[in-house]
Amino acid sequence: MNKTLKSKNIFTPRASTYRFSYALVFLLSVAALGAAWYLQNIKDLAPCPLCIMQRFGFWALAIFSLVGLIQGTLSKPMNVIAAFTGCCAVGVAAYHNWKLMQPKFECGIDPVQNFVNDLPTAHWWPDMFMATGMCGAKLPLVLGLGIPQWSLLVLLSLTLIFVWRCLKG
């Protein structure tokens, strides 16, 4: 009987380590989304389609981490899916940064913007998911880095936590 109770205890040191990593991912994802909302609605910086796609990545990582936080841990397949989702978001952020480094890059209304703005989320919550800006717009630096660079660094860090969770078991 004692063994049964011990195996179901969700507050073991291992579970608390898992919860800490999921809580960290959740808080950083929500903070990034809050910063995006603030920059868009208070500072009037219009998001481009690639910015919106990165927001989807932050949302997905926040949801996976919230589920892991509530359950105490995610199963290995769920951690793998979360890591893959994070890798996709990192890929979008890396592509965005690469495009910004191109000397004659211009981004206007393109098929990606039309696709992003036709998604149901753009109609349900336009303040968060409607692309209205240009990818090549000059944005202010924050602590020496541009907003797309910060997005790449944060997404990469959060994804690495899920990769670590996959490898750790």
TrEMBL record:
Q: Which branch of life, at top level?
A: Bacteria
Q: Which PANTHER family match?
A: DISULFIDE BOND FORMATION PROTEIN B
Which protein, by its recorded name, is this? Disulfide bond formation protein B
Primary subcellular site in the record, as a coarse category: membrane
Membrane-traversing stretches:
20-40, 52-70, 77-96, 147-167
Keyword presence, Signal? no
List keywords of the entry alphabetically: Cell membrane, Membrane, Transmembrane, Transmembrane helix
GO terms for CC? plasma membrane
Which GO molecular function, any one, fits this protein according to its record?
Answer: protein-disulfide reductase activity
Tell where it localizes: Cell membrane
Q: How does it sit in the membrane?
A: Multi-pass membrane protein
What NCBIfam families does this protein's entry cite? Answer: PRK02110.1 (NF002552)
Q: Which GO terms describe its biological process?
A: protein folding
**One matching Pfam family, short form?**
DsbB
SUPFAM superfamilies assigned to the protein according to its UniProt record, in alphabetical order: DsbB-like (SSF158442)
Native species: Ephemeroptericola cinctiostellae
